[in-house]
Amino acid sequence: MPDDGQEVKRVEQADREICALICRNNGIKAKEIAKELNMDRQAVNHALYNSSLMKELCWQDGDYCWHGIMKQARPHTGLQEFAGYYDTVRNFLALSGEEWLERLTEGCTNIGRNLNDTRGLFHSFRDCRAQVLGLFTDLREMIGDSCLDWEVAFELRLKRSRHVRIYADVLIITENRVFSLEFKMKDQINPEEILQAAKYSPYLEIMFGPEYEVIPVLVLTAARDIFEFAPIGKTDAVLPVCSGDMLFNVFDEYLGFLK
Description:
The chain is of the alpha+beta class. Helices cover 44% and strands 21% of the residues.
């Protein structure tokens, strides 16, 4: 009998396959999903009607065909439905700080993001932008303008079904990887914040599909010269932790452009 962890992984894998198939089609019925994936029809229906994440990412039309809200390929059409700001890196870099903030706040309003500034929310928005600008300054010096065709999303929020709550600060989307950046204006590593950075990965893997590797990263914006791998809770897994000035090292670790 599988343990709870194995069962969770099995369900996540099934959800990922179902969601990816839906997003590859312009409308598909449950019986067609079951046939295509060689799955039990009852299991498919259970995922479609009971999976909280499926309620976030897919919808059913009047003919009982299922559709994906977001395309699982670049450009990720539909991602703007979940993010305060989403665009190519090229277009992001072309905006002034105020233009970007205006678009971000408008997008946050559209997705229902609370914009209460009593705890310095807008300062944290600007801090995230500054770190991302610094990252792409470094990357362009190393690999040229090829990174301009990547995509960037700020303030990803999944809460439409009220069952799944995902708040990702920044996503950087390359050809086949999604870097999920959790920013903290601190200079020390906190194990709880490592868990926070890591916990959205299974959901993002379903959201972006099997062609993408999701890499969670904790970024300490008040620190300097930090780049290491920290354990995720009591597991054997690790994730990269870095200061803002060393963020390019995370991308090199996985993309290998300095080798």
